[in-house]
Amino acid sequence: MTRGELLQKLKDVLRELFEIPPEKVTPEAKLFEELGLDSIDAIDLVVKLQALTKRRIAPQDFKMVRTVGDVLDCVEKLLKENEPA
Amino acid sequence: MRWLKYPWLLLGKLVALALIFVGGGVLAVMVLLSLVFMPGNRRERTQFLVHKSFRLYLWALQFLGLIRLQITAPEKLLKSSGKMIIANHPSLLDVVILMALIPRVQCIVKHELWRHRFLGILMRQAGYIRNDLDPEELVTACRASLDDGLCLIIFPEGTRTPPGTLPHFQRGFANIATLTKAPIQLVFIACTPPFLFKGEPWWHYPSQKPFFQIVVGECLDANAYSLYDQRSIAARKLVESLESYYAAQTRSNQS
Questions:
Q1: Which domain covers residue B83, as residue numbers?
Q2: Edge-to-edge, what's the strand order for the sheet holding B68-72?
């Protein structure tokens, strides 16, 4: 999956989970300050991403995530490195 | 005559404020003594003592003529168990009033108080929940308390409401609610004129005796706020609907 496709997928997820308008979801957008996520939302997001990628996300990997771009990096890394669980 | 009364009222206020902090020390000693003399577990005993002391404290404030207090439907709170208690937060006394009205409570307290000399002892003995816990641990601690039949008091604003403004809620309480499915008991607190509000100078005393009105409102069942597929959406809708509920209450109280 290309980065553009991933971003599109993430837009869908963020709209479904948090009603965030897709046009606000840019790689630079900050999840907590600009898109209004909180720490419990982040857990919901991780659960959703795990279900979609069928891979486990280590909590420490997601701790550093601040922006939409960071989420894309994290997912790309997962898809590249890990075999499906 | 106002200039005659003011020194007395101000003295009363300062004594009352000092009592909270020094009284914390007295309470801490009582808690330690109760370890020896009272049955039951440590947390239950401490919470019972806090409840009784706060009742006494409120009675004293009224007896000294420092405040007036009116409670609508207190029996609803007295019988409450395993509910979340949600309230707006105009004054420093709000938590004292709620804890005096509800026998078995749990609250989330800012972590700085664990370092306070007297109150720190109380926090540990009463087993309150620290606000700096990891989010998942915090929810787990809340769920355990609710399952245990305690009422979880939360002021969703996270701090006191500045006078003359409408409450602005944070989402934490809604996250706890949607995750634990606990019923939500709504309480509206009004204080006119504003007293012990955020940023109030220590020498301030209102020109009229502060009148606290505690209105115990409806209790929302989990079904009433879980109408959405996604928990995260349900939490957002809950914040919106309660914010407008408290805004309406605030407006009708002011008019």
A1: 2-254
A2: B68-72, B211-220, B184-192, B84-87, B151-154, B105-109, B129-130
